[in-house]
Design a protein that fits this description.
Layout lengths: L12 E10 L6 E11 L4 E5 L6 H8 L7 E6 L2 E2 L5 H11 E4 L11 H11 L4 H14 L15 H13 L5 E5 L7 H16 L4 E4 L3 H4 L4 E6 L2 E7 L14
Parallel strand pairs: 3-8, 3-9, 6-7, 7-8
Antiparallel strand pairs: 1-2, 1-4, 4-5, 9-10
The structure holds adenosine-5'-diphosphate (ADP) and magnesium ion.
Length: 248
Amino acid sequence: MTAPRTPPRHPVLDVRELTKVYGEGTAAVHALRGVSLDVAAGDYVAIMGSSGSGKSTLMNILGCLDVPSGGRYLLDGVDVGRLADRQLALVRNRLIGFVFQAFNLIPRTSALANVELPLAYAGVRAGARRRRALAALDAVGLADRAGHHPNQLSGGQQQRVAVARALVTEPALVLADEPTGNLDSRSTDDILAVLDQLNAAGRTIVLITHEPEVGARAGRLIRLFDGQVHSDVRQRPTGRHAAVGVPR
Ligand code: ADP
Ligand code: MG
């Protein structure tokens, strides 16, 4: 894995008074009611909340997959609200690595080729693509499975491939939506260990989960309730504030 980017001075996420309304008039649903938060480079944040509290809505906006009804969102210093769709797609590809609950790997295609894919979209040449994809697989402990197809891997291993794919472009932010939702407890432990390592190496991570043991591992735990931040608690130091000696 190449070294993470030098941490910028601005937060990776800077969200002010975000609102989201679905529908109109009497049918309007206020899914977000003024959410403000910022996430510094190198932080590891878990977002929890009961069903309907607005987690997916917030995640979709943070991931530039949807736009807010009001408020402001700066991603790595870029005002996302001012971008046209095409620019938004570029920002998404360049700045965010996604990990989904359902792995979303391409079947009958090697782990290596799956991880290379975002680099192919970005126009990286074959030699560099292969080298970087192998480094990303190595970072998640799967260098020896590069030639395996998804159906030859366990669920936990498939999700590690998906994490490698999210990392390979060196995104400013890794955004994970219920990344352990489909995994047994042992595979969940594997993924949490990988996320711990990535964060210790300086990666910024935001994940959604409904599992308390997953939320407990993050450096910071934000709880949503009814479209608002209900609590925002630092559980341990991360990033710049992490213990001396942690590789950055
Ligand atoms: P969570 O992910 O925490 O379960 P969501 O963000 O999915 O919550 O939903 C928040 C609220 O917005 C819920 O009341 C939900 O019914 C509503 N909602 C979500 N998506 C839509 C949509 N596309 N159209 C209308 N209402 C929606
Ligand atoms: Mg949801």
